[in-house]
Design brief:
Blueprint lengths: L1 E5 H11 L14 E7 L2 E7 L3 E8 L1 E4 L1 E6 H10 L4 E8 L2 E6 L2 E6 L16 E6 H12 L13 E7 L2 E7 L3 E8 L7 E7 H10 L6 E6 L3 E6 L2 E6 L18 E6 H11 L10 E5 L3 E8 L3 E8 L7 E5 L1 H9 L5 E6 L6 E4 L5 E4 L23
Length: about 375
Amino acid sequence: MKVVISKNELTQLIGKIQNIVANKPAIPVLSNVLVEARNGQLYLKATDLTTSMVCFSEAKVVEEGAIALPAKKFFHLIKELTSPQIKITCPSSDVAEITSVSSHFKINGMIKSEFPSLPDITKATQIPISSTTLKEMLYRTYFSAAREDSRFVLNGIYMKVDKKIASFISTDGKRLSKMFTNIDIDPSFQGSYILPLKAVEEMVKLLSDDEQLVNLSLMHDKVFLESSNLTLITKLLSGEYPDVEKVIPTNATTTMTLHREELITLLRQVSLFTPDSSGSIRFIFDQGQLQLTAMSSDIGEGTVSMPVDYSKEKLEVAFNPFYFMDILRHSKDETIKFSIQDAYNPGMITDSTSATFVIMPMRLNDLKTDSEADVSQNPQFA
């Protein structure tokens, strides 16, 4: 292999692919990146056997070839070089030479055949969708997915395709997010997919904030995202996602309008008086006012209030303030709608988009010992 490429172009490729390389690989070859030159392009490929990526850039290919190089060493070296052009040659199948003006380096690698092959995309069902739409669907739902739950299916986003509508749902048992969008696909096509959280986070980083079309390609066990000069491939989480839509309130007796930024500010203030991230704040609705109260024997207590359009009898309910703030930050509009039935059933937050957010209440017995309900343990949840 012999190829010359702009340092800027190569650095951009590295920035896209570096998070795919496994930190603690199951097998040594997974700590490598495959560098391949062909057809006037330089390709970088990385995988952790669950999530994989291929990205490429134009380059001057003198001689085609490929080599797997230790990713961290290779990435760090390229970033440290100062020359605008970098030459990569392979005098043998397992050694690469990096040349930059007067600097010359040799890196021991592995032959291409030892690097895992990536899946074939040709038989996948393709969904064209705008980059900004897909990014919004993922960004506004993935924050409420579980991070390290023993119920592995909750460690991802549930995507359902039915009747030309793609729905995205995530939950960690304490809160739930749902969005949907219309898609251009055969109306008879149906499918369910659980996207792993790592892959979703990479998609959010990679997708641009414009209307350019990207392809989301679906297979029974994999999903592919094709965007400009890269392809992200992820295996799906296996298992049956619970029917969490049953906990989305449909019979809330009270709906009120709340000023989003003002509520975030007050929650930030009063949350300083909760002992930790699992603490709670008491929401007291009473005749045109919402009062927020937090108490801790170690810290002290805080009370704030704001006007709201509430005229019913006094209602007290406790929520985790950090979960509530997360939902508000991922909502849109100056004001949002908050719906609730009582202190024991989930609350729902909506805005002018397709987004629906659900948050489970906490016990009101004692603010210092509040504990959260769980979506999966709710009596509505079967």
